[in-house]
M20 family metallopeptidase
Amino acid sequence: MDRTHLIEAAAHYVDGGGLVADLAALVARRSVSQSEGRIEDLYAYLQEDMQPLLSAMGFAVEIFDNPREGGAPLLIASRIEDESLPTVLVYGHGDVCNGEAHRWREGLEPFTLIQEGDRLYGRGTADNKIQHLINIRALELLIRENGRLGFNARIILEMAEETGSFGLREFFTANRERLAADVLIASDGPRLAVDTPTMFMGSRGGMSINLMVNLRDGDHHSGNFGGLLADPAIILAQAIATITDARGQIRIPEWRPTSLTPDIRATLRDLPPRHHDSEWGESDLTPSERVFGWNSFAVLAMSSGNIDAPQNAISGSAQATCQLRFVVGTDIEDIIPALRRHLDAQGFPMVEVRPARGEAFRATRFSPDHPWVRFVQNSLAQSAGKQPHVLPNLAGSLPNDAFTDILGLPTIWIPHSHAECGQHGPNEHALVPIAREGVQVMTALFLDIAENAASLKAIA
C-alpha cells in the first residue's frame, strides 16, 4: 500500500472507533504504580492486555520480574525480520499515577474512559497508555497492509515510570542484547502546540528531596508555649525561602546551569509562546529558555499539624517534599550535597535533607543534527504538511539516560498529548485530533523507515 492510502487507513482506525475501544480497555486496567496500586494489576497489564496484542502481530514476547526487590514487571517484544535491516526500539510505560477519584469533576472517574466531544477522559489517556497504543497500532497497520514491517522492531514496556523507573537501569544493563537497536523512537510528554507535531531528543532531569525539621515529640499548647518553643513550620518556611528569591530564581550556585549556550538558545528562539506568569522564573530568560534550558525548583507538598482541623498547638515537626528539574550540565551527584552546604551556610543545620522515594532521572540532550533526527523530522513534516517543533529536550523528566548511556542509542520522542492534558492530576484527558494525527504520522514514519532501510542501517 502506498503512503497516502496507508495514512488514510490510519485515520480510519480512529474515525471508525478502534482507538476509543482499545483505549477504553486499557484505561479500565487499574495499573497504578503509586500508593493506590496493586502489583497484580501491573502484571495483568502486560500479561492480559499487551502480550496477546503483540503476539498476534508476530512479536516474540517475554515478561520479566523487576531485578530489584519490590519492583514492577517489564516486557520485551521482538520482531526480527532480517538481521541486515535497522532495528527500531519503541518504549512505553503502562503504569499510571494514583487515580485520586475524589479530585475528578462530577461525571468523570479515573478508570472509565468517558468521551466528551474531542476529549477522552481517564487515567492514562495522556500518560502514557494512548501514546504507546498509537505507536503499536501504527506498527500493526504497516504489518497488516504490507505483510511485513520492512525493518526490525523491539518494544520495551515498563510498569514503574511513575515511581522513577525503579529497576529499569539495572534491567537494561542485564539485557543489552535483548534490547539492541539502532534508534529509539518513542512517545511521551506533550506537544508544544495542539496543531503541530513536536519532537525532542532528551529530557530535563528530576530529583525529589525531602526537607524535615524535627524539634520534639508531640505538640505543645500555643498559648502556654508560644514565644518559648521554636516553631518547626516557620523554620522550614524560612529555610525554603533561601533556596530561591521571591520570583523563584534559584540562589544555589551549583544549581544554576551553564549549558544554555548560544546554539541551544537559537533552537529555542522560534518556539510558540508559552503559558507563563510574567513575574516568575529567571528574569533575563524567555519562557522557552526557562522551561527547556534552565533549572527549576518547586515545593510539591508541605505538612505541619492538621490543616483540616488545626489545633491551638505548636507542632513538633514539619516537612516538605521539594523537587529540582535540571538540564544537562547539572551534577546530579552534587544536588543534595550543594543543598546541604547552602542550608548550613544560611544558618539552618537543623533542617534534614534526604532524597525522596523514587529514582532520580538524569538529564539528557541529543544532537538535533544527527541523521536519524533529520530523517524523522522530514517524515513528520511531509505527513503533517508543516515542520514539527524540534526541542533539544523535554521540560519534564524521562528515563532517557537508560537509552543513551546504557544502550548507546540516538533517542527521538514524538509526543501524542498536549500541555493542558491534566496528567498527574484530576481530569486527565487526550485530544482526538492529536491522536488521529499521531497514528497517521507514526504509520507514515514507520513506512518511510521501511522504504529507506538500507540507508538508515548505514547510519549505525
Remarks:
- The chain has two domains: 3-203+362-458, 205-264+279-355.
- The radius of gyration is 23 Å.
- The mean pLDDT is 96.
- Residues 432-451 form the longest helix (20 residues).
